């Protein structure tokens, strides 16, 4: 027996906004009766066609599906289309005081329907979720992963990333993928690994904002530990003259002073500082 909050029970027993809007501006339909869950969302816009003034739904599914759909219609009323698109499946669950993890796919279905409705209204390609049980590739470039529930790799990776999922079991709870025959479980695990790998790479590539003091310290450390020892090996040296923001002024000494290749040496110093400190650094050679 699932542990439902009072608010989930309230929206299940007394769902808001059930039905259809005959002259709806936007309609989003996701899921299928074959999958066990289906949702049709209707949106009515104001005269400017930017703000949602009414929303209704028709759904086939469990109590959590009804409650999630009811909550979504309440959440979108009064919002602009852009504001509505920012609603996440987690926010739908939070509105209800939480959902059992095994029922999170109901909130995901609500978010799907909202995205599809707005995309169709705007005349753009709807997000690739799948629901094509007969083809390995679906419109929009997604590849079918779960044939039982018609879910694509594009959709599954989005859910994995936005909800920070780390196991195939979690993906099943949030999307139903892998919950029938289980044949797609290995592929789901691959997708999780891909997402985690992409996030790790993005974190490594994300530039760290340095304070001026820390940047100056790093510049001095790199010059002392990485640059000067290499110059010493060739009988040369350099002196740090000044640091002004991203501009580093240096003067070459000994064998490097007045050398025809000092310009090349300055570029070498600049490259080292950009690599180890910040990619906006510019090295200027001065006579000191």
Automatic annotation (TrEMBL):
A GO BP annotation: iron-sulfur cluster assembly
Function: May be involved in the formation or repair of [Fe-S] clusters present in iron-sulfur proteins.
Native source species: Geomonas limicola
Gene transcribed to yield this protein: nifU
Binding site for Fe cation: 35, 62, 106
NCBIfam families: NifU_proper (TIGR02000)
Occurrences of domain BFD-like [2Fe-2S]-binding (ranges): 144-194
Signal sequence, start to end: none
This protein's name: Nitrogen fixation protein NifU
Cofactor mode of binding and number, as noted: Binds 1 [2Fe-2S] cluster per subunit.
Keywords: 2Fe-2S, Iron, Iron-sulfur, Metal-binding, Nitrogen fixation
GO molecular function: 2 iron, 2 sulfur cluster binding; iron ion binding
Domain NIF system FeS cluster assembly NifU N-terminal stretches: 4-123
UniProt superkingdom: Bacteria
Binding site for [2Fe-2S] cluster: 146, 148, 181, 184
Reported cofactor(s): [2Fe-2S] cluster; Fe cation
Family that this chain belongs to: Belongs to the NifU family.
Domain NIF system FeS cluster assembly NifU C-terminal as annotated: residue spans: 219-283
